[in-house]
Amino acid sequence: MKNLLLFFALSLLISSCSKSNDSTASPQNFKNVNGTEISISNENWYTKKTNTMGEVHLILQGNTNADSLKITNSGDGLVSLNKIALDVNKKFDKDLYTSFTASIPLPTSVFQNSVVMTAYKGTDIFEVTLTSGNLKY
Fold first, then answer.
1. Buried b (16+ CB within 10 A) or exposed e, 75-84
2. Side-chain half-sphere exposure of 90, counting CA atoms within 13 A
3. Cα 101 from chain centre
4. Long-range contacts of the stretch 128-133 (C-beta < 8 A, 24+)
5. pLDDT recorded at residue 76
6. How far is residue 43's CA from residue 27's CA, in Å, rounded to a whole number?
7. What is the pTM of this model?
8. What local confidence, expressed as pLDDT, does residue 97 receive?
């Protein structure tokens, strides 16, 4: 009887655990008329929630022919600009996030988030907007 009760409790515990929602996009290639390119091989959005805060994460991997890349995003109305490190082959791999605090209630239903990726190549500036699929806390 004790073993049956333990088995039932473990089964209930395992079935009640849930993974953070995520949204993964297919590989994408962007190119402007001046030849500046951004290729995204992995774009994975996911959420994390802790006590009074929520975070929207974006794992971004790919490559570019630009000299530098930056991501603009905002949370709680504060806009942030994040430089994306490029290796010698102009590849990037970044996990960035936007935080939301209790000052603005976290969404209770499905929502989407977006960032603007800006590539700089010489005097050329190329902007691409990336939008998540449906996310939920």
1. beeeeeeeeb
2. 15
3. 17
4. 128/30, 128/38, 130/25, 130/40, 130/43, 130/58, 130/60, 132/23, 132/45, 132/56, 132/58, 133/23, 133/24, 133/25, 133/45
5. 66
6. 7
7. 0.77
8. 84
The CA distance from 73 to 27, in Å, is 21
Degrees, nearest 5: CA angle 52-56-18: 75
- DSSP classification of residue 123: T
Give the whole-number percent of the chain exceeding pLDDT 90.
50
Token pair for 13: 């515990």
Which residue, among 98, 96, 115, has the nearest Cα to 106 in the 3D structure? 98
133 vs 113: CA distance, rounded Å: 8
Chain centroid offset of residue 114 CA: 8
**What are the strands, taking DSSP E only, across 11-123?**
22-25, 28-31, 37-50, 53-64, 68-75, 78-84, 91-100, 114-121
Six token digits for residue 130: 């990336």
